[in-house]
Structure formats: C-alpha cells, structure tokens
From TrEMBL:
One of its GO terms (biological process) is proteolysis. It holds the Pfam family Trypsin_2. The lineage of its organism: Eukaryota, Sar, Alveolata, Colpodellida, Chromeraceae. Residues 636-645, 664-675, 682-694 have a biased composition (Low complexity). Residues 614-694 are annotated as: Disordered. It comes from Chromera velia CCMP2878. PROSITE patterns: V8_SER. GO terms for molecular function: serine-type peptidase activity. Keywords: Hydrolase, Protease, Serine protease, Signal. Residues 614-635, 647-663 have a biased composition (Acidic residues). InterPro entries: Glutamyl_endopeptidase, Peptidase_S1_PA, Peptidase_S1_PA_chymotrypsin, V8_ser_AS. The keyword Hydrolase applies. This is Serine protease.
Length: 694
C-alpha cells in the first residue's frame, strides 16, 4: 500500500496543529498534486460536470453573435517558463474561480471569489467550458460558449468568509449567488445538508484549475487505496488529498461513491515549484508528499497537510430559507415614497470630506388581515448613473434601530431587491408599523446618479395558518459542572423539550416543526476571565447540524445566536429532539466551570420540507431502478447522452412557446430579467470591476 507511510506523516502533521484551529485566518491559498496527477478532461457530459460553472471576468471576454468569446491565451502564454511535461499548457485559461449549481437559479462558490455584488457583477458565470461539452455541442472553438450557457449575478444571497460575521474563527468560506434568470438545461447537484462531519472517504473535484477548461479528478477505475481524508475535526471544513490549483477555488468536491456534494474547495498549499537542471530552471507543479518542506514559488513552504474543503452543511440553513421563500404564499403590498420627495432626485457625488446620501421615507402599510405578520421587505428602484449603477449603494432602516446595508444596486432591472435575502428577513420580520427610511449614496468620485422612481414592497404571511412555537428547552445536566482541562472531548450539556410540551413541536400531521430562530446563553467561571479560553459547540437533534462559537467574557452570561449568520445556520433543522452543547477548554493548566446555561428555540411548520424529502426519496428509488440499465448501456459501448442538458432546455423552451408562462412571484419566474435576455456586453459595462477608480 504505497500511501501508508507518507499518509502517517501527513496525519501526524495535521494533528499537530492547534486542536481548535483557532489561530487560522481564513485567507485563501491554493493547492497542488498529490502523488499521481488525477486531473483529466472528462470524456462524457455527466450531471456533475454540467452543473459546474466557471467565473470569468467580463473585461476579458467579447460577444460575437450568439456566442461569448473567452480570452484564448493559453496556460503557457501566462507562464512562459513552464517545464515541458506540465499538463494542459496549450489549452486556453480564461477563468478566475469555479462554482456549482445548487438551485435552479443559484450557484455556490468560494466567498473569497465573490462575496458582494460589486465583485459578483464583474463576472460572467459560464457553464459548458469543457472539451466534453464542446464535442457534444459540435462547437468549433473551445473558447466560444453559447450565450444560453452564460449568466449574470442578481444578488449575493448569503456568504461567510473566515471571521467575517462573528468572532467564531471557523474559517468557513462560501457564497451563494443568485442569477438574473433560472439556469436552463442543467440540474442542481444533490447537496449533503446534514451531519457535522463527512463520513465519505473518497472524493473527486470538478473545476477550472488555473482557469483551464473543466477538469475532473475522478479516478477512471475504482477508488484510492486509502482514505483521502486527512483531517475531519472542524465543523466548518475538512482536509483531503485533492489535485487542485488556483482557479479551483469554489470547485465542487463530490463523494466519489454517491456523487453527492460534500463541499467547496477553498484553501491549500503552493501550486508551483522550480525545477533545476543543466544550469537552467523551469516551473513544474508542486507535488505531495515528496515536496513537503520545500519552498514553493507562490505560497511559501509546502506543509502537505491537505486541501481545505468548506462543508456543504455550511450552506444548509440558507438553502432551506431559499426553499421556504419560494414555497411561501402571502400578500405583497407596494408602498410609494412619502411627500415631499418628488422624482427625479439627484444623488450627490461621493466625497471623503462630507459623505452625503439621499433619504427616502415610507410608511408601513396596514397588515392585510389581523392574523398576518411582516415577513420581508423588498426595494424597487429605478435609477441612472453617469458611470455605473453599481456605484450607488442602498441601506434600509425600519421602525426603531433595525437597519441593514443592501449594498450596490444591481445592473439588472430591480424588482423586490433584498426581499428574498435571509438577513433582510431576520432584520425586519415581525417589526411593528412605523416609518421606514431608504438611503441611497454614491460610492466613488467624479460621476453622479439620479433616482427616477422608488417604492418598497412589504411581504406579509398569514400568521394564524402557521403559528410559531417558542420553547425553553429543559437542561438535563446538573450544574455547576467542571470543564476538563485541555481535553478536546470537553463536557456536554443535554437539552430536551419538556415532556409535557414536546407535542407542541409537531404539526397536525405529526411532522416535527422546524427551527425558525434560537437563543443560547451560557455562563462560564474561569481562572482567566480576560482570555478566550474555550469553544462552545451547539448541535441540533441527531447532530444534523453543529456550529462552534468562540467563548468570550468569561464569568459573564454569553449570548449566542445574535448574528443573522448564526441564526440562519439552524434554519429549517428539526426542533424536536435532544440538543447538545459541548464546551471545550483550549488552554492547558487553566480550569473553568459552567454555572448556568439556557437554550430557547422558536419553531414553525415548514410543509415544503416534507415535499422535498418525498421528492428526494422518489429520485433515489428511481435512480436505483435505472442503475442496472445505465450499466448495460455503458458496457455496450454507448456513451452517456452528452446532449441531455440541451434536451431538457428544449423541453422547457417548448412550454414557454406554448404559452405556459409562470405567474409573477412563482419559483420559475424569480428573476428580474426574461430567461431569454442575453448578458450585457463587456463594452457596456467596461470598467465596472474597477469602480471607485474612474
């Protein structure tokens, strides 16, 4: 078993890092080759390949007829001193990052690639940039892709990068980006949304290393001889042996046995090493474990500790919220701006001396029925700008102090901007009636904008039809309880629904209610009250989702779940069952005691969850029934249908031609643009990736 000896050293190296990994910063790094290079051009268009997307900067493209022309520069042209045996050096390399389709109108990628609209708007999202799809579609040039496979960002639905949203040091790195129109002819991948740690041992990556056409690392025969997992302790990411490079950031990492999405590739080691010989040198791919301890060209000394993969479970709460939004039925009430505002309104140019903004005021509408409550708020804005609409930024404040930054205005037509975002919902849901303020400001000098029209749309849900249940869980562990010194097992506290109230966490059909919001309070008395000396892990029933927190302010009550990011992590999870709080001491020879702990959960019925589970069960049964037929087809020499994606697209198109147009607000028409709308040309958007410098 040729991997046993080097793997033992690698596992020891991975285990030697701080067992809480609290010092990690979350900054993106890149990767290399492990033993033999498994990267190859896929031979067939599989569903995972069809769902993989490349992020390419608009300024490096052109539109010719109905095709997007990508920059033809090859890998060798970008790195002219490559060694002669470097793979794929004669292929075009226009890409910046990778991603994967997780909903019909949304992809997942790494947050360090695009975590706001300003960055997302600078990209085209290109499906089908692979030799397999080129052959299947009969395209003459690899670097020319049909515009039907090119999409633009409408909103960044959610994201997390390192320590960005809280002081939890989790090193999570992901972003969900919604498109201006649903993706046609391609299906979202199946995403693992439950479980604190992957149980898989074998993986493959599909993505765009170095910006190249899509490469897969799936072994052509069988599985690796030993597990590919190198470290599986942190609940936000795991480490594995994967052959990846810069450009693979955001690449989907699949379970090699089930094709289920396990996570997104986000960090690793150096890509390149110098090779010396005959008085000359050239660049070659870095390889592990043989290059361990050597200095790479681009990212310092190789540790060969494995590539970091953000777990797919990090997306689960946001994806559940997205499904809930699409399944909800309610009433929309538009509200116009209050006097004395009259349109058009000029937006003052940005100034570092005296920042200025235009404020528009709105009054809350009367709820449509006594039992309905405010669910979300959307902004409808028509504006112009001398340079780029994305230089205009919006913020919305509700009655009282509740406020949120909505960020840059999208270039696409703006309809209910922000209404589907989870952070908007958590900020404004259930607010009382009062005065609302929309602030519009310019963010770069030398050019000005103008507001042509503006309104807010208030989304109400019938509360009586879906009442929320608030419950304080019963602590089953007797307090006070000491925390073991510097022991990763820590101490566990068990919480359960009070026996006399457990039935309240089920709906009329006996289904468990789902988490809507939660609150955890813990008090720890510690020898060093001024240091961060512990971590707190909260697990939902059956450990389906686990979130870790940094523990601060020792000796005082610590409140967890205050940020929208933390709240949404458990959104849609089962509320009924045993919850676990684990507290781990992270400093040697310092002891502490838990003196108080409370957990409150707010839950509601989410009927869409039952439909999703039934659909998944049906798909699994159908897949098992078709498995034998597919094996016979492959053995008979007939390749999988590379045109399946196109066929599905034609079927959807025929429905529209027949006049079956979805109603506004339905899941099939969530975009602000028509599905037929082509992406904007790079010429019309020139310079938008460099806003603030014009």
């Amino acid at each position: 078993m040729r991997f046993i000896a080097p793997l033992f050293s690698l596992l020891s190296l991975a285990a030697s890092q701080d067992f809480l990994d609290a010092a990690d910063t979350g900054a993106p790094t890149f990767d290399m080759i492990w033993d033999a290079d498994d990267r190859h051009n896929p031979a067939n268009v599989t569903a995972p390949l069809a769902a993989t997307v490349m992020l390419v900067r608009k300024l490096s493209t052109a539109i010719r007829g109905d095709m997007l022309v990508l920059r033809p520069n090859t890998l060798l042209q970008g790195r002219p001193n490559l060694c002669g045996d470097v793979q794929f050096q004669d292929e075009p390399a226009p890409g910046s990052c990778s991603g994967v389709l997780v909903a019909q109108d949304m992809i997942a990628t790494a947050a360090h690639c695009a975590n706001d609209m300003r960055r997302a708007a600078a990209y085209f999202f290109v499906f089908g940039f692979s030799t397999a799809e080129q052959e299947a579609q009969g395209r003459e040039a690899l670097n020319e892709v049909p515009l039907r496979d090119v999409y633009e960002a409408k909103e960044v639905f959610g994201w997390e990068l390192g320590n960005s949203h809280s002081q939890d040091f989790r090193r999570s790195d992901w972003a969900l980006i919604r498109f201006t129109r649903p993706v046609e002819g391609r299906e979202p991948v199946k995403v693992r949304e439950e479980g604190p740690a992957t149980s898989a041992e074998h993986f493959y990556v599909i993505g765009h290393p170095n910006g190249l056409p899509a490469k897969s690392t799936r072994r052509r025969e069988g599985l690796d001889e030993v597990s590919m997992v190198l470290w599986n302790n942190n609940n936000a990411y795991f480490k594995a042996r994967l052959d990846t490079f810069g450009g693979n950031s955001g690449s989907p990492v699949f379970n090699a046995e089930t094709d289920e999405l396990e996570g997104l590739l986000v960090r690793g080691d150096s890509d390149w090493m110098w090779e010396y010989g005959s008085g000359q040198r050239c660049m070659r791919e870095a390889r592990c474990p043989q290059d361990r301890g050597q200095r790479g060209i681009d990212r310092g000394v190789l540790r060969c500790a494995g590539e970091d993969v953000t777990r797919s479970t990090e997306l689960a709460g946001h994806m559940a919220f997205d499904r809930a939004q699409k399944a909800e039925s309610g009433e929309k009430i538009p509200v116009d701006v209050r006097a004395p505002n009259s349109f058009p309104i000029s937006v003052p140019d940005w100034s570092h001396i005296q920042p200025r903004a235009v404020s528009l005021f709105f009054s809350s509408p009367t709820p449509p029925t006594p039992g309905s409550y405010l669910h979300s708020v959307g902004v409808n804005l028509e504006a112009t700008h001398e340079y780029s609409l994305t230089e205009l930024s919006l913020s919305l404040q509700g009655p009282g102090s509740n406020a949120i930054e909505l960020g840059p205005v999208p270039r696409s037509p703006l309809t209910h901007f922000g209404a589907s975002r989870p952070d908007v919902h958590t900020t404004f849901a259930n607010l009382p009636r009062g005065l609302w303020q929309l602030r519009v400001r310019d963010t770069a000098g030398q050019d000005v904008g103008q507001i042509v029209n503006a309104s807010l749309t208030f989304f109400f849900i019938e509360g009586d039809a879906n009442p929320a249940v608030s419950m304080e869980m019963e602590l089953k562990t007797e307090l006070p309880v000491p925390i073991p010194d510097y022991d990763p097992a820590g101490v566990e506290l068990k919480f359960s629904p009070p026996a006399e109230e457990a039935e309240k966490l089920k709906d009329a059909d006996g289904n468990d209610l789902a988490v809507f919001s939660w609150d955890l309070d813990v008090t720890i008395d510690h020898d060093r009250a001024d240091e961060d000396v512990a971590r707190v892990y909260l697990s939902s029933p059956d450990s389906r989702r686990v979130y870790s927190f940094g523990a601060f302010n020792q000796g005082e009550m610590m409140e967890f779940g205050e940020s929208a990011r933390q709240q949404l992590f458990f959104y849609g999870a089962d509320a009924n069952g045993d919850w676990t709080v684990r507290v781990v001491d992270s400093k040697e020879n310092i002891t502490g005691t838990i003196t108080k702990a409370t957990l409150k959960v707010k839950a509601v019925a989410m009927p869409w969850r039952n439909a999703v589970e039934e659909e998944a069960a049906g798909e699994e049964a159908a897949a098992e029934g078709e498995a034998g037929a597919e094996e016979e087809t492959v053995e008979g020499g007939e390749a999988p249908a590379a045109g399946d994606a196109e066929g599905a697209g034609e079927a959807e198109g025929s429905q529209e031609e027949a006049g079956e147009v979805p109603e506004e607000g339905s899941p099939a028409s969530t975009s602000a643009e028509s599905p037929e709308s082509p992406p904007s040309t790079p010429e019309s958007e020139a310079g938008e990736a460099n806003e603030g410098q014009n």
